[in-house]
Amino acid sequence: MLHRAPERARLLARVTLVLLLTVATSVGVGSTGSSARAGTTTAARSMWVWDVSTPAATVDLAAASGIGQLFVAVPPRLNRSPLLPKIREISERASAAGIRVDALGGDPGWVDNPGWVVDNWLRPALSSRLFTGVHVDIEPYTTPAWQSDRAGVVQRYLDTLTALDQAAGSTPIEADIPFWFHEVPAGATTLDRETMARTAGVTVMAYRNTANGDDGTIALASPALQSAMEVGRPVRIGQETRYLGDSPVETKQTFHGQTRTAMETQLAEVEAAFTGNPWFAGTSIHDAAGYAALAP
Question: Taking the CB of residue 15, how many other CB atoms lie within 10 A of it?
Fold first, then answer.
């Protein structure tokens, strides 16, 4: 049976996270003089780290780029994993640099066995005491059953988030969602809202390399920010830097092949568009490897 944390403890954790993210956004956690303009503030930045093989370079990149939070990929049974020393080094180096580290994990198959996930992934990760939170990227829409039994997958996905939240106790859990989850029914409401209701916050994957326009990041992320205002959860806006392919549909989703300067111009537009929203928690970069490969 899952350990059911007191509702008051989970609520306190979520309120605390909202306050921390609000402060971070207003004061520019981890911002550097090179990225902040005089008389302005820099929105909070976070970054996915799927490759943990270079701890020093990863943390140095984050510190130099004004990134205040890392989502670091964690394998199942971390206590027995050969990756544990690298992950521990990232956590320790990040902590010394004032950068928060959350345990990152996820797989579409999680929705079919949340008990296994809790016992083999979540609890070993939390018992390591290397993380300040949990960040999941489950992507249930990539399962074949999404086409044949979408309602069933949606419910199993939400049940998985509930199981993780209950087992994590006061540790905040955040989730990645695509920008179109507001179009997916979930009970009497929508999947973005139901995901938010079961987590401490979400990162909306509004992957476009232009901020403005009908198909730009701002337009794609706006429904999630509207839902956030209704549900009361912070929302980060994710941006892609990895190579996705050469088709027009693929290239418009990523800053791969562009410069960091060009990317910063677009991120500034995104951050300016949402700074007045109290539930906007900054931007997230996917991922460390792709970001490191961008030219200045």
Answer: 12
Question: Which domains are assigned to the chain?
Answer: 7-12+44-293 (3.20.20.80)
**What is the β-pairing status of strands 235-240 and 201-205?**
parallel
Buried b (16+ CB within 10 A) or exposed e, 139-175: bbbebeebeeebeebbebbbebbbbbbbbbeebbbbb
The rounded distance, in Å, linking the Cα atoms of 251 and 151 is: 31
Separation between Cα atoms, residue 60 and residue 42, nearest integer Å: 19
Amino acid at 70: L
Q: What's the pLDDT at 24?
A: 38
Q: How far apart are CA 47 and CA 183, in angstroms?
A: 26
Q: Considering the chain, what is the average pLDDT of its residues? A: 89
pLDDT of residue 241: 98
Tokens of 135: 């960040």
Give the predicted TM-score (pTM) of the model: 0.86
The amino acid that residue 134 corresponds to is V
**Which residues lie across from 175 on neighbouring strands?**
136, 202
Do 179 and 205 contact (CB within 8 A), yes or no? Answer: yes
**Residue 186 in tokens:** 């979930």
Place of tokens 């791969």: 256
Query: DSSP 3-state assignment of 179?
Result: coil
How far apart CA 178 and CA 260 sit, in angstroms, is 24
Q: Alpha-carbon distance 208 to 273, whole Å?
A: 15
- Give the pLDDT confidence of 51-90 residue by residue, as tens digits: 999 999 999 999 999 999 999 999 999 999 999 999 999 9
Q: How far is CA 41 from CA 21, 250, 283, 289, in A?
A: 14, 32, 14, 26
- 1-20 tens-digit pLDDT: 323 333 434 444 443 444 44
